[in-house]
Every structure is written in C-alpha cells, then in structure tokens.
Amino acid sequence: xxxxxxxxxxxxxxxxxxxxxxxxxxxxxxxxxxxxxxxxxxxxxxxxxxxxxxxxxxxxxxxxxxxxxxxxxxxxxxxxxxxxxxxxxxxxxxxxxxxxxxxxxxxxxxxxxxxxxxxxxxxxxxxxxxxxxxxxxxxxxxxxxxxxxxxxxxxxxxxxxxxxxxxxxxxxxxxxxxxxxxxxxxxxxxxxxxxxxxxxxxxxxxxxxxxxxxxxxxxxxxxxxxxxxxxxxxxxxxxxxxxxxxxxxxxxxxxxxxxxxxxxxxxxxxxxxxxxxxxxxxxxxxxxxxxxxxxxxxxxxxxxxxxxxxxxxxxxxxxxxxxxxxxxxxxxxxxxxxxxxxxxxxxxxxxxxxxxxxxxxxxxxxxxxxxxxxxxxxxxxxxxxxxxxxxxxxxxxxxxxxxxxxxxxxxxxxxxxxxxxxxxxxxxxxxxxxxxxxxxxxxxxxxxxxxxxxxxxxxxxxxxxxxxxxxxxxxxxxxxxxxxxxxxxxxxxxxxxxxxxxxxxxxxxxxxxxxxxxxxxxxxxxxxxxxxxxxxxxxxxxxxxxxxxxxxxxxxxxxxxxxxxxxxxxxxxxxxxxxxxxxxxxxxxxxxxxxxxxxxxxxxxxxxxxxxxxxxxxxxxxxxxxxxxxxxxxxxxxxxxxxxx
Length: 645
Known about the structure:
The chain has about 650 residues and is of the alpha/beta class. It contains 22 helices and 25 strands. The strands form six sheets. The chain has a seven-stranded mixed β-sheet with strand order 12-11-13-14-16-15-23, with helices on both faces. The protein has a six-stranded mixed β-sheet with strand order 4-5-3-6-7-8, with helices on both faces.
C-alpha cells in the first residue's frame, strides 16, 4: 500500500504536484507509517450501512483537519436484492495532508462486506492495495449468486493484493453477546465494527462517532450502546490482532486552507444553506415548492428544518404543482425556489416559460442525473444543459449558473439569487448527483462577506400619462437591468394583470400586435444577455497553446489532471465556466487565443456544441456518460494526446 500511496501519478493531485511519500516510525509494539494521502472505499450490500459508515469516517476525518473529497455510490432501488451485484452500495473517501480535488481514481483500501462487494469493486484497485473482507459472508450460496465458482479468498486470484480476512459478523456478534439482542439484530452492527477497525488503522478520532450514535439512537439506548460496543470492539481488534501490524497517520492539511472555521459539507447541504443565506441577505421569506426526486430530495428535507429562518416548504403532489406554487410565492414577494432533477424539469417547462413571461424571480434547481427518462436515478450526468438553455416553447431565455464543487454550491445559490432578484427572471442552477452527494471541507463565511441582495418593491405610480395622470405600469423597465418593477399583490394602486399571453410593453395589457411581440421577445433576450457576470479567469502560467474548458462538477477531475500534466512538464491552460447563460463577455477572446480547446463533459458534447455555434471555434469534445465522474488519470491521458496531436 505504501508504494501505491507514493506513486507519482497518484500524488500529482496535490497542491503542487510533488510527491511526499511515506515515512515509517515505531509506536509501541506496532509500527506507524506516515502517509500524505489515502483513498478508502467501503462496499457492501445496500442494507449493510455503507453510506452511514463512510459518512461517519468522513466526519471524523474532517474534524481531524484533513482535506477530503467523497464519492457515495448506491443503487436506485430502496432495497436492492441482497447479495447481488446490482445491490452493492459503496462510499469512497480520499483524504490528505494537502489540497486535493477528487475522490481519487483508485482505492488504496477496499472494505468488502460480501462477495458481491468484492467482485463489483476489485477491478478498480491497483496491485498492492489492501483488501479487508468479511469472511463470514463468503458462503457457497453467496459466491454462486455473483458468479464465483470458487472462493477468491482461496483460489489465488487475490494474490496481488494485501488481503486481510476478518470474520466481521462473528466478531460483532461475539462483542455484543452481553446485550439482549437477537443474532440478526447484533449482525446489523458489523458496519460499526468495520468503522472502528478503520478508525484505528488511520488514527481517526472516535468521540464524534460515539456522540453521533448516542444521539441517533437516543430513544433506543440499548441499540446505541450496542453500536458503540461494536465500534470499540473494531478499534480494539485492530490494536490487538497480529494481522494488522501497521497503522497509518495522515497529518492535518494545515497549509491547504485559509484561516477560518470549517465544517464538512455536501453539495445539497451547501446549496440549502446558500438559499437560506440568500433569503436573509435579501430580507425576503424563502419558499420552496418541490416534489421529491432523486438526487434533489435532500434539499427539501433540509430546508423543512429551518422554519425559524422564515423558510416555508411545500411538498406538492407533482412537479407541476411544485413550481406553480413557487411561482405564486414569487408573485407574492418571496424568494421562490423549486428543486428537481432532469425528468422534473421537463414537466416544469411550461411554468418556467410563464415565469419568463411574467418576469418574476424564481430559482429552478436541477440536480442532474443520468437520463433519458427515468435513466439512472442515483448516478451523475451533465446532460441537462441544452434542456436548461432551450427546453421551452417559444423564445424563453433563462440564465444558467453551475457550481463546481460541493462547497461551491453555497456561493452558486447566492449568485443565482442575485441574478433572479436583480433582473426579475427565473434562473437555472445546474448541480448534479456527484456534487449533491459528495462532500468536502467548507469555510463558513462571515456575515459581512455575503452580498447585499435586498430589493425595492414598487410602492406607487411610476408613469405619467399625457394628461398628467399618474399610473402604475408593471412593465416599465429599469434602464440598466431592463428589470420590471416587482409589485406585491394587495398594494393599493398597483393592481396589474398577469398571465401567459403576450404583454404590451409598459402597460402589461394583453397584446397581439406583431411589432409589440417582436419588441418584447427581443427585450427579454436583451435582459438576459445584459446580465453582469465576471470575466472568465484563465489559469495559464506557462503560455500554453491548448486550453481545457469545463463547467460544473468536472472542475475537480480537470484541475487534478492539469496538475499532473504540469508536474510532468507540460504546458496547458485551464478555465472553468460558472455562468453558462449569458457566457462571460471575454469568452470568445479567450477561446480564440489558443490553438486547441478541449471540453470534457459528462454528456455527448452539449457545451462544446454551444461554443462551436456561438464562437465558431473548433472545440474538441471529450465525453463520458457512464454515470460516474471523470478520473484524473483518464483526463490527463486525453489532454496529453490533445497537446501532442
């Protein structure tokens, strides 16, 4: 494992591409090896608690001060068939003593709770990696269920790995024999035994996990005590068994973070906090109209906990009702949000067009997943970009914002709210399953660092007729932003007509006049085109001739790949788009400054299509649609070929 950890190809994900390597020093009767980074994957049946195990290991790692990145991976079924390959659930964690960007390409350690978990994941491991297997589950029936004719623990197929056979189930049941639990109930704690063992191996804190278990099972103190006992038994097993002669230390990433207060955060949680912060900074109540859909449901769950911040959540009967309620809340003066994934966007499209016509602020949060149709509900993809840009009838332009990391979802939510409130328009926020479920350290901002999003509602007449009469025109626009006034229903004198039929400029009256329709269509487009977004920043320290351009969650893998290439002496430039509509004003100039432009996307080339059409640049697509994020090594190879080609 040590040689794997210090591999230059793996290490180039570090802040400067250097190799730290591993050092060894004695500690009592067992050795302690110091590593600069580790990638661990917990894998088991979807009922084995792998997501909880990984989440707890991640929380303790975050509290220890390591930089980290996670990749949960689980079936779409609530309870997939036990012991089968489709039922395998896994959680990968990459943590280090330096700045990292991805969950890692290949695990250094695999914890396999059954044969299915081993078979589904062994192909991702490099030779020399450590494999901890629960031998109790390697029964003849379990092996046959996943196509093993002989046990891989006995036929030599795992000779290239450091295999640790551990009877996790038996040891857990033995550790809990003093509790009044059935064998089946005791077996459920085997994930905590595994967590305790890994916590010992990597010197993770334990207090937080024990406190978590007491809180989680506060109404069942016997279950809480049993899980804590299993957790401690796993720790003690690592300390006493001869099979684990070495433990490992990964020091805190002291230089990777600016000073501040940090916490571990997932993309959906960061997005939820960003929406709450936006409502507070705008001094508006937050309203979420939503229908549960994977992988966006966590936002609904989280926001429903924060009524004390003026948050109101409405779980509608369907996607159309959810956005209809949100648009009504926007008309009533709330910061309105609807959350969904790709299939839900399709259902919401008519109401998004209505929001364009009404010119009201509305945030449409699309946590993208694999498609088409129901597709891959728990797998990631970036294939909704063209739907967000054009998936409505008529000319219905909508700004599009995309976060780049889980923590960046907080800032992206604030930016989407700024655009919606300033320009009176619906805004798409395109996250995806990789960001939503993944996590990383996040510096909690100070309140004075947040933008001022306050808006002024219309209070009285804003137009004078030829006869001197003062009236309110609902479509009289701000000269700079082209935003129309936001008039709250019930304000005396500000009564106005709303609806989807074309409006007359200024008055808002129904109009079928061809010239007026042409003017309104062009004005709505000009409003979006005129949105103030920052220029695109380009990272090009060596005067490269090849630019890699990304958007959304490809940021981590692209940046890791770029670091590897630069560490190997290659010159390559990198730029990453947050604003996809409108594009930054300098994007065309940037693109024309390079001989080659490569656009990696988790789709079949949607951004590349937009780039080619708008700027007449021969952008080269590099695409992946397998439901998983890019690997850094994979991208580094593709970019090297582009540089040399």
